[in-house]
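Working notes for the structural subgroup meeting. M.R. asked for a predicted model of this chain before we commit to crystallization trials. I am recording the input and output together here so anyone reviewing the notebook later can reproduce the run.

Input as submitted:
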Amino acid sequence: MKVMEYHNPVLLKETVDGLQIKPEGIYVDVTFGGGGHSKEILSRLGSNGKLIAFDQDSDATQNALDDPRFLLIPENFRHLKRFLRFYGHKQVDGILADFGVSSHQFDVAERGFSTRFNAQLDMRMNQQDELSAYRVINEYTEEDLRQVLKEFGELRAASGMARQIVAKRDEGPIKDSKTLKRILSRFIPRAIENKILAQIFQALRIEVNDELEALKEFLIQSEQMLAIDGRLSVISYHSLEDRLVKRYMRSGLFEGEPEKDVFGRVEVPLKPVGKFIIPSAEEIKKNNRARSAKLRIATKL
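Returned structure, recorded in token form:
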């Protein structure tokens, strides 16, 4: 079986250190990808330890590790609780997540994730899903497109972009990224072209994969499945993700403030461990994907 090529995992040591691995513990890597973080966890486990991994991308299954302590579940991490219980695990000692698009997904042009290539508008992490970037661009109403671009891409010109897309698709379907870039060219100043394109692609990718709702479900289920003193290590790559992770680790909520009891105390399910961690300049130099990574660690109370 051919192993797919993936770049080095981001913040490898820091993320796994954050789990405080117990040799005989049960751990979960919900974003298996190329298996980099999983291999490091396995290297710290004893013979009775266990590692369960999740990845909805069928390409990742080709990297499954040949180890009796390892199980790869080909599902979205939003189903964490259901599958852990299906396999007989009521609680686990640590959960790791490295969000965002893998280097492999970016580098395979036909997946449509990268602004570097001209490719069909796809962006599905699970290639069996029905919703693709093509359908979002060609079937969403102008108002829905505007909302996706504004909310998930944080684009100031979202209204104009949505209006332009709807006007141009009347002339024929918008099939590939090159055509989409050309249609939106007047909204993409050359001086910040890469930044604006990245925001457009991010907005479409988040919508196609329902990423923020999946993240919320994952965080809630992680807290439920962690044993007391269990650890959660999460790497985010943009502010929309990191804001949700930060808020949930601090308050157990995604918005608002937790309620206080009659004594003014607040009960929260998790406690942040230290401050967030970012990659060193040396790591960013070796792996450019690491430049926007932010690691947060919490422990179950």
